[in-house]
Each structure stands twice: as structure tokens, then as C-alpha cells.
Amino acid sequence: MTPPEGAAAHHRALESLYAAAPINRLFESRLEIVEPGVARIRFRVDQRHFHAAGAAHGTSYFKMLDDAAFYACNSLVTDRFLLTTQFSLLLTRPLGEGEVVAEGRWVSGQRRVFVAEARLIAADGEEVARGTGTFMRSRIALASLPGYAATAA
């Protein structure tokens, strides 16, 4: 099997970076960069993510939406790690246990600031939340991050 090159190598390296992030030990999830500017993350929500009323806490919604939007944007940037500078959420329905998909799409920006939208789709196919984020280039080189560097080399 030939190792991926160019954009495909960058996308696989971002998927590896996501998997290596310590926060993702708390969330059963898997990132897929579908194409430049589009990211999809499959999550498994369980009772560990619930608030006292028995549904997913808002922090879980934010995590899923922010990650999908972030990786959609960072799929277009091959040299630097992006940082979330702003994120707006719209929660439309309680989310219980089960599979959920976060889909992120780049909207605008190509140099320093990027904007992306994301939505959460529950196992029944219904949208339960959406969000819009703004992301900015950092000074952190992607190649300096162990999870990324191992795959992109």
C-alpha cells in the first residue's frame, strides 16, 4: 500500500492528531476528514456525559461541534494548528445515549481567520444542535505535535 501524499497525508495526520489528544480518552469518537473543508466525527454518547436530568450536558455538544468545525478548517491549513477564538451554539433537542455524528464545513477564510459551521445528527437522523465557529492560525507548527508528526512524515 502506497502511503498517502499531499492533502491526503495531511488529512490522515489530522485524524491521527485527533486520536492522540488526551481529551479524546473521555469521548468514544473517531474523526474522518471527508474532503478539504469537511470533517465528520462519530461519537458515542453515554450516561457519563449526562447532566442531572438525564441528557447530554452542553459541554458534550460544544466538544462535538467545535471539533468538527475546527478540523474542517484545519484540513485547509497544512503548516499551523488553529485555535478556536469564538463559537456560537444552538441546542435544539436533548440528546440521549447513542451514536451521534458531528459534521463540520468550512465557510470562509483562507489566510489568518477561518469560519466553519457544524451540526449534530442523532442516531434517528434528526439534527439536535448546530454551531458556528471562528478559528485563527496559531504559532504552533503542526509538525511539532507528536500525534501529527508521526503520520505526516
UniProtKB/TrEMBL annotation:
Hydrolase found in the keyword field: yes
Q: Which InterPro entries does this chain map to?
A: HotDog_dom_sf, PAAI_dom, Thioestr_dom
The record places domain Thioesterase at 54-129
Entry-linked CDD domains: PaaI_thioesterase
Provide the alphabetized UniProt keywords: Hydrolase
- Is-annotated flag, keyword Cytoplasm? no
Pfam families tied to this protein: 4HBT
Q: Which Gene3D superfamilies match?
A: Hotdog Thioesterase
**Per its UniProt record, what NCBIfam families does this chain match?**
unchar_dom_1
Q: What is this protein called?
A: PaaI family thioesterase
